[in-house]
Amino acid sequence: MKRIISTRAQGKLKQASHHYERAAEIKPDDYQSVLLLMQVYRSLGRPEDEREAARRGVGRAERELVNYLENPRPAYLSV
User: Fold this and answer.
1) What φ, ψ does residue 34 adopt, rounded to 5°?
2) For position 23, which CATH number holds?
3) How many domains does the chain have?
4) Among 8, 36, 59, 66, which has the minimal tally of Cβ within 10 Å of its Cβ?
């Protein structure tokens, strides 16, 4: 994940989007990669992809909140 964030920080957004997409595939329950992907899509001017990533990310974050009530982090990272 650090490598992806570094890529994004360097302004290599298209490359970062590929990394976040792959991370979301590898860990299908991870909400963070999808919500970060949403932000990259926003920066790339891809509104349809942004909305789809937001929908997926929020769904994953909601499931995380239900399964792990003691962890409020998903509520802070949602859209």
Assistant:
1) -70, -40
2) 1.25.40.10
3) 1
4) 66
Q: At what angle do helices 47-67 and 31-44 cross, to 10 degrees?
A: 160
pLDDT digits (tens, 9 = 90+) for 17-69: 999 999 999 999 999 999 999 999 999 999 999 999 999 999 999 999 999 88
* Domain span including residue 8: 2-77
Please check whether residue 34 is in contact with residue 20, taking contact to mean a CB–CB distance below 8 angstroms. yes
Report helix, strand or coil for 71.
coil
Q: How many residues are present in the chain? A: 79
In sequence order, what DSSP letters do the residues of 6-50 get, joined into one string? HHHHTT-HHHHHHHHHHHHHH-TT-HHHHHHHHHHHHHHT-HHHH
| pLDDT score recorded for residue 10 | 58
Tell me the pTM. Answer: 0.79
The one-letter amino acid at 1: M
